[in-house]
Every structure is written in structure tokens, then in C-alpha cells.
Amino acid sequence: MKHNIFWSGGFDSTFLVCKRLIVDELPIETYYLNFPCDGYNRDYNKFLSTNFDESMKKNKSNILENDPWDNSDRPFIKSKKSYGRSSRFIEVDVMNKLREMILHKFPHTEKLFPEVNLVKEFEIQKDVLDDSKRLAVDYSARWNRTDQTLYMCQFSLDLDDKIEVSYEADVSNPDGVTYSLATQLVRKNLDENLEVKLNPNMPEVRVYKNWGLPLAKTYRKDMIKTAEQYDFLDILKYTWSCRFPKENGDVCDDCILEVKQIERVNNYKDLLCMTI
Questions:
Q1: Model pLDDT for residues 216-246, shown as the tens digit of each residue
Q2: Which among 8, 58, 208, 267 is placed 20 to 30 Å from 88, CA to CA?
Q3: Going edge to edge, which strands form the sheet with 163-164?
Q4: 90 Cβ partners below 8 Å, 6+ apart?
Q5: What are the residue ranges of helices labelled H in 74-139?
Q6: How does 223-239 read in b/e, with b if 16+ C-beta sit within 10 Å?
Q7: Could you tell me the end-to-end alpha-carbon distance of the chain, in angstroms, rounded to an integer?
């Protein structure tokens, strides 16, 4: 049975990729949304001037010009333009290098592990947009703007197949208190197989119906133990999760503790120069 996975080159999604390939010995198909779909809403230009080097500042494709949230007939709070992360070029290169590392160390995975699918921008359908709008406005169950989960929902529906999202058991958002609204929503609507189930009291949850969260009850410490047992902890040390690195290439201050957890490489320039 093939497993579809949203992959980013980060710790959790790379652990899932390794688990499926090395532990479960199952074929996978990986997908990466390679366009500005994150939905960041901040003084982005000021942030860029302090955190990114010149090559990243010149990435004009970081603005979602045609924001689908503006095309809905539901009321919404008008916000600034929706931005993606300029670190996409890091993540794409890191995923390619991680794949090389996995194939080199575990040759039997080659037949199970095709190249990552880099997904270009696609249209959000009106029914998905309207249901997402209701989740935001009527239930306060997601952000009231375009974000990555909107595109992940649409992609999973277009795929017409189950796809795995690497939301783990640890609380990892910046405030350290709770999960994001969308993450809370999907976690509350999981069945015994950790797949999103339909909710008759909130039919709009159907936009997540093809999502599975196989790591929803797995903590980072357990991932590390599994990686040690199956000898792929060294691969996880080369993952990249920081979306806003410092200008010199180091991870931001919010990510430094996460990096130190298993002594991950903490500078994207070192990662991109890495040879297999």
C-alpha cells in the first residue's frame, strides 16, 4: 500500500518518510507545496530586512498575489497580503539531499521512494473556500485568512486519496500553550486510525476528510528512540525546520532549542553545501 505524505524536509515529516521506508518498508509518494501558501500576516518587509540574506530578499514570488480568501462571499476580516516563507529554496534542496542520504544508506528504499513532487499553485474551489470560511467565521476553528492548510485541504481532495500530515504529539507552536486552531480541529476529529472523520455537527470538517495524522500520538523523544533503533538518527540531524533563519544562515532564536535536541545542523548554508 502506497502512502502519500506532505513532506517539507523538517524533522517530523522526515521522520515519517523514514518510518514508512525503513521501519515499515512501504512505498511512498511525497508532495511539497512549492508556492507562497503559508499565510503569514505581519510586517514582512521589516522582517526580511533583519532575517534574510540578499538572495532571499530578491525572491519576489513570496507574495500570494491572488488571495483566494478575497473571492469568497462570506464576511471576513480584511488583512494584509498573505506571504509564504522565503526558505522554500532551502527546503527543496534539503529534501533532495535527504533523499540522497536515505537511498545511499538504505539502498533497498530506492524502489519505494520516487523524487518529491513539487506542486505548483492551483485553484481553490468555491465549496472548499466557503466551508473553510464557515470554519473560521462560524466556529473559530481556523484562521480567518488564507493559510497553508487551505491549500493542503484542496490538494488532498484533488488527489482523491489519503495523505499523511506530520502533526506530532508535542506542542511546538511559539506560545508553547496550545496548537493552532486548525491543528486543534483535526486532532479533535480523528478516528481510531488517526484519520480525520466526518462530523455531523460540523459538516465543514469534510475538507480535511483525506488527511491522516499518523504521528498525532507520537512524541519527539519516541521518534528519536525509533530513529536510533533503526539507525537513521544521523539523517534527522540534517533536517531543516526554521522558516525565518538569521541573515548568516543560522536558525532563528525560536528554533535553537529544537535544533540542540539532537544536535541538528543549525545553519542552512552548511546544509546546502553538504555532499553525500
A1: 999 999 999 999 999 999 999 999 988 878 8
A2: 208
A3: 117-119, 28-33, 3-6, 163-164, 211-212
A4: 9, 240, 245, 268, 271, 272
A5: 88-105, 126-137
A6: bbebbeeeebbebbebb
A7: 30
pLDDT at residue 37, rounded to an integer: 86
The answer as to whether 204 is a domain residue is yes
Question: Scanning the structure block, which residue is given the C-alpha cell 525546520?
Answer: 241
Which residue has cell 513570496?
Answer: 62
Q: Can you give the CATH number for the domain in which 239 is found?
A: 3.40.50
| Helix, coil or strand: residue 158 | helix
Q: How many domains does the chain have?
A: 1
Residue 98: what pLDDT? 96
Report yes or no on 63 lying in a domain: no
Domain extent at residue 97: 3-38+86-122+147-272
Q: Which helix (H) or strand (E) segment is 266 a member of?
A: none
- CB distance 89 to 152 below 8 Å: no
Q: What is the pLDDT of residue 49?
A: 47
- The conformational region for residue 275 under phi > 0 = left, psi -120 to 50 = alpha, else beta, is beta
Q: In the prediction, which pLDDT does 46 show? A: 47
Q: Is residue 29 in a domain?
A: yes
Residue numbers in the chain where pLDDT is lower than 70: 40-63, 71-83, 86, 171-179, 259-260, 276
pTM of the shown model: 0.89
The amino acid occupying position 69 is W
Picking from 46, 13, 12, the residue whose alpha carbon sits closest to that of residue 30 is 13
Give the cell for residue 93. 534542496
Among residues 218, 72, 231, 221, the alpha carbon closest in space to that of 136 is found at 72
